[in-house]
Amino acid sequence: MTERASSTDRDVEHHQLLAHGCQNDHFTVPGHPRCPACGEPQEKTLDLTKKTGIVKTWTRVAATPPGVREPNTLAIVEFALEVDTVSMLGGTIEQVSLGEQVRPVYIDTLRDADESVRQGANQSWGGFRFEPVSPDE
């Protein structure tokens, strides 16, 4: 674990998927100034980039906002930590199943900048999606 960076923009620049935690080892994605569970400051980070998680639930969105692929499959993925778990919502690269093991993969362009509602040169269009882990890995 490392100390939390002062700018969340660094997370995307270095292509890290970071969970943010407090001194009581409660972690969330995204981070918060104070832990939602106990109110302590979230001053720790944990890199989930090379970890695998389990699909807890998923849905396929047919009517997406401008610039977002259609259909767009989203999943809630749970990562096991030393003391607890942390869950996050994210898109998937392909169809997933309940209980399937997935890993985060950085994607340079999650949405079409020319079609999106929010435009601007300083807007980051990259981020993470989840892809299934093959059984032989």
Automatic annotation (TrEMBL):
Region Disordered, residue ranges: 117-137
InterPro entries in the record: NA-bd_OB-fold (IPR012340), Thioester_dehydratase-like (IPR052513)
Protein name: Nucleic acid-binding protein
